[in-house]
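README, section 4: Worked example with a bound small molecule

Sections 1 through 3 covered apo chains. Here we extend the same pipeline to holo records, where the ligand is supplied as SMILES alongside the sequence. The molecule in this example is zinc ion. Nothing else about the input changes; the structure line simply encodes the ligand pose together with the chain.
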Amino acid sequence: MGRRQTMQEKFKQQMKAYRKKRMKVDNTPFMPSDGIVYVMNTLNPTEKIKAEIINKSVKQHREIITHLACPECGNSMDWDGNWEAFICLKHGKKAIYEIANKD
Ligand SMILES: [Zn+2]
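The generated complex, written as structure tokens:
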């Protein structure tokens, strides 16, 4: 009985890790229906900034945003699944931009 529980426990942990990994891979933001995206600087989250979309892709028949222009310097930022944000390293200090809700 003890051994069986251990196996189940192990399986549960593996499933949890697997789901977490899947979510990490899958968290590229969807394109809003109106096509307008706001971001917020994670390190200074006071104002929402309208961001320019540079590149899109299609996932599961929906548009996703893969590249945004940095509001500070205009550099093309990649989506970073680990940070769950767009990151710019081009204008000196590292900037992390999260997608902001509109309201
Ligand atoms: Zn920048």
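What to look for in the output: The mean pLDDT is 89. Residues 70, 72-73, 75, 88, 90-91, 95 surround zinc ion (CB under 6 Å).

Section 5 describes how to batch many such records.
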